[in-house]
Design a protein that fits this description.
This protein is an alpha/beta fold and 410 residues long. Helices cover 39% and strands 13% of the residues. Helix 2 packs antiparallel against helix 11, helix 3 runs parallel beside helix 11 and helix 12 runs parallel beside helix 14.
Length: 410
């Protein structure tokens, strides 16, 4: 067995499941705001497209994807960000974001036998677990990037000593778990470091289409949709050197079950991934690709979904304001990142033995006992220990029901 398997951390949500199962066995109804899995319907026109795409005789799909899909993605990048992407050189479909995220790391690592120290992959200290798991499994070393008061990774942490060992820097805006956004100047600064030291910058932009009240404007100082979060691709255009962005239809179009996304950017890296992908056997079925073409070509359903999330978001923002719960970052995505009330100390879930004011595990345990599930920020990293993440993906009526519960128990 690969010895790195023993170094993998438990997947965060599995740690909550035992207590959830015990409470459900006792008849407690739980409303789940812990997992960021959209619950609204996939639009009917997308479902119709997948049915039309099923042919009497199926064949292996090509790893490079349908030309129509690459063209649809490139056209979307042009409309959304105001930059030109060549569908042949800059775009490759993927099975959601996760495939591209997982498989990017090994493409960038040197032969370890030729190095005196392991290469580094820089990851924000609060981050989606898959970034680090891929690094661990491929025998590189995670370099945790400390977060500043704005919840953005501190690029000053990339010192010459770090930069010379760095193969890849992962960014994620709008961010999971904090909902923070980054200005284009931040992406430019990251790319300047990449140019200096020769590493790649990868941007996970899965939540790019979920913004509210112009709150993404800090990232949109350039061409493209005004008021929306920006992209690494804008900062890296026109050649996208050392830069790739990953996006997906999962959040934008409620298509998590479809596993459809893309990676776009540096043509040399896209060429290599296009060569490696057929060997992995993960090409997206053509009927899903055809549904994806329809989804990328339509913005009306995205605007409607954004409006639904905005209404739910406002319910919880108003509640937290009434209860004196401090919300930080949370400009975009379908998450609120909030500070745990100080009266909550350690819990059995955290394994802590000493008092700790505002502990996220104790708070999550308390809310779960009252029928509401949130994600303890401590699951994402030590910096999140005093925070919790609430994913407002359930229906508006369910959100209202949860607000009534929280009104009583907070």
């Amino acid at each position: 067995m690969n010895p790195a398997i023993s170094r993998l951390k438990p997947y965060a949500f599995t740690q909550l499941r035992a207590r959830q199962d015990a409470l459900r066995a006792q008849g407690v109804r739980l409303i789940n705001f812990g997992v960021g899995d959209p619950e609204d319907e996939t639009p009917a026109f997308i479902r119709d497209a997948i049915v039309k795409g099923i042919t009497p005789s199926g064949r292996y799909p090509t790893a490079a994807g349908l030309p129509e899909l690459r063209q649809a993605v490139a056209a979307w990048i042009g409309r959304r960000y105001g930059v030109r992407a060549d569908p042949e050189r800059h775009v490759l479909p993927s099975n959601g974001a996760k495939e591209a995220i997982w498989n990017l790391t090994p493409l960038l690592l040197d032969d370890p036998s030729q190095r005196t120290s392991r290469q580094l992959v820089a990851i924000p200290e609060l981050a989606y677990q898959v970034y680090g798991d891929s690094v661990t499994m491929h025998h590189a070393e995670v370099f945790p990037m400390p977060l500043g008061p704005d919840w953005l990774p501190d690029l000053n942490a990339i010192t010459p000593e770090v930069g010379e060992r760095l193969a890849l820097l992962w960014l994620n805006f709008p961010n999971n778990p904090t909902g923070a956004v980054a200005p284009l100047s931040y992406y430019r600064d990251a790319l300047a470091l990449a140019e200096r030291y020769g590493f790649c910058v990868a941007s996970d932009e899965a939540y790019s289409e979920l913004w509210y009240d112009g709150s993404g404007a800090a990232g949109a100082a350039g061409p493209g949709v005004q008021g929306a979060p920006g992209s690494l691709l804008q900062a890296a255009a026109p050649d996208f050197h050392n830069a790739v962005a990953v996006n997906t239809l999962s959040k934008r179009s409620n298509m998590t079950a479809y596993r459809s996304g893309f990676i776009a950017g540096d043509p040399d890296l896209i060429r290599v991934m296009k060569d490696v992908r057929p060997r992995i056997g993960v090409a997206t079925p053509e009927f899903i690709q055809r549904a994806s073409v329809a989804a990328w070509n339509d913005e009306t359903h995205v605007e409607a979904q954004r409006a639904r999330y905005a209404e739910r978001r406002r319910l919880f923002l108003d509640l937290f304001a009434r209860k004196g719960i401090q919300v930080e970052a949370s400009q975009a995505a379908f998450y609120l990142w909030a500070r745990v009330p100080q009266r909550f100390g350690p819990s059995s879930m955290s394994g802590a033995s000493s008092a700790s004011s505002g502990d996220s595990f104790a708070f999550a345990e308390y809310l779960m006992d009252n029928g509401v599930i949130v994600l303890p920020g401590g699951f994402m990293g030590e910096r999140g220990r005093d925070y919790f993440r609430l994913a407002f993906v359930p229906s508006l009526d369910t959100c209202r029901e949860a607000v009534e519960i929280l009104e009583r128990v907070l």
